[in-house]
From TrEMBL:
Coiled coil segments of this chain: none
Record-level GO cellular component terms: signal recognition particle
Gene this chain is encoded by: ffh
Record has Hydrolase as a keyword: yes
Protein name: Signal recognition particle protein
Keywords: Cytoplasm, GTP-binding, Hydrolase, Nucleotide-binding, Ribonucleoprotein, RNA-binding, Signal recognition particle
Full-length numbering of the shown residues: 1 to 307 of 527
Similarity field: Belongs to the GTP-binding SRP family. SRP54 subfamily.
Catalytic activity: GTP + H2O = GDP + phosphate + H(+)
């Protein structure tokens, strides 16, 4: 991810290196190239506009510093502004004062929620927590089974509707039962069995729809999550912003997880979502294995892009 963006920015800065001082025209030309590189990487138009506006203003008013040549100064400004649009400081999960901490996952189908549930569960378990996974995606065929597989790999138990209980996966692989009831019962189970974290996997549709959003909001209202993580496929390009805004409005998520950051797509989602929704990116999912999971650090991501 970001290979092209990274190359383009690097070559833009290379052109500046020979200059002793930068004229306004030099800065404008540089900002134009940065704008094009960001737009070609699918970064959302309003984010690009704000970003380039700030970079231009700061570059024009930058003090000539003894330590940095003009090119380095522009790189420093771009770096700082990249960190800012990626959310500034990284923060950890909000853990409840009175466990269990309830974490709800939301996002489109195929975004990587179920995979992320396993990764997060494994990561928390390795830190000494005792998570419980809750299978409240009763929409997608075999989603419950998939979560059970993921849970087994992570060494984390899964609360799922089973025959005679909340509904069962029939021969079609589709679970019946009410996801809100399952989610609530999952949290109660975690409390009674002393799990300190509950991770609720919810249904996603291929596109944003009102029924999906209502179901997610109902699960939220029934379980009062400490953290609602919106999982977004970093490869979805310009659709990222509309999708993120719909979920921000529909479920008021509290953090973002970027999935499929290992892909070779242009990465605009990664660079737009935190800014557009005002919510921080907490984690990155970087592959299909449960260990392909990272705490997201805006400064490290910015350095990677400008490397
Ligand atoms: P859900 O519908 O949101 O629960 O999505 P899934 O967790 O089922 O993921 C959809 C597909 O994307 C599966 O084939 C996963 O193996 C794959 N996937 C999930 N996360 C990643 C990731 O970070 N990188 C890659 N390359 N594939 C992923």
């Amino acid at each position: 991810m970001f290979a092209t963006l990274s190359d383009r920015l690097t070559s833009t800065f290379k052109n500046l290196r020979t200059k002793g001082r930068l004229s306004e025209a030099d800065i404008d030309a540089t900002v134009r190239e940065i704008r094009r590189a960001l737009l070609d990487a699918d970064v959302a138009v309003p984010v690009v506009r704000e970003f380039t506006g700030t970079v231009r203003e700061r570059a024009l008013s930058a003090e000539v510093s003894g330590a940095l040549n003009p090119a380095q100064q522009v790189v420093k400004i771009v770096n700082e502004e990249l960190v800012a649009i990626l959310g500034g400081e990284s923060r950890g999960l909000n853990l409840a004062k009175n466990p269990p901490t309830v974490i709800m996952l939301a996002g489109l189908q195929g975004a990587g929620k179920t995979t992320l549930a396993g990764k997060l569960a494994l990561n928390l378990r390795q830190q000494g927590h005792t998570p419980l996974l809750v299978a409240a995606d009763l929409q997608r065929p075999n989603a419950v089974t998939q979560l059970k597989v993921v849970g087994e790999r992570a060494g984390v138990p899964v609360y799922a509707p089973d025959a005679g209980n909340q509904g069962a996966e029939g021969q079609s692989g589709v679970s019946t039962g009410d996801p809100v009831t399952v989610a609530r019962a999952g949290v109660e189970t975690a409390r009674s069995r002393q799990h300190d974290v509950v991770i609720i996997d919810t249904a996603g549709r291929l596109g944003v729809d009102a029924e999906l959003m209502q179901q997610a909001a109902d699960i939220r209202d029934a379980t009062s999550p400490d953290e609602i993580l919106f999982v977004i496929d970093a490869m979805i390009g310009q659709d990222a912003v509309a999708t993120a805004q719909a979920f921000a409005e529909g479920v008021s998520f509290t953090g973002v997880v970027l999935s499929k950051l290992d892909g070779d797509a242009r990465g605009g989602a990664a660079l737009s979502v935190a800014r557009v929704t005002g919510q921080p990116i907490l984690f990155a999912s970087t592959g299909e294995k449960l260990t392909d999971f990272e705490v997201f650090h805006p400064d490290r991501m910015a350095s990677r892009i400008l490397d």
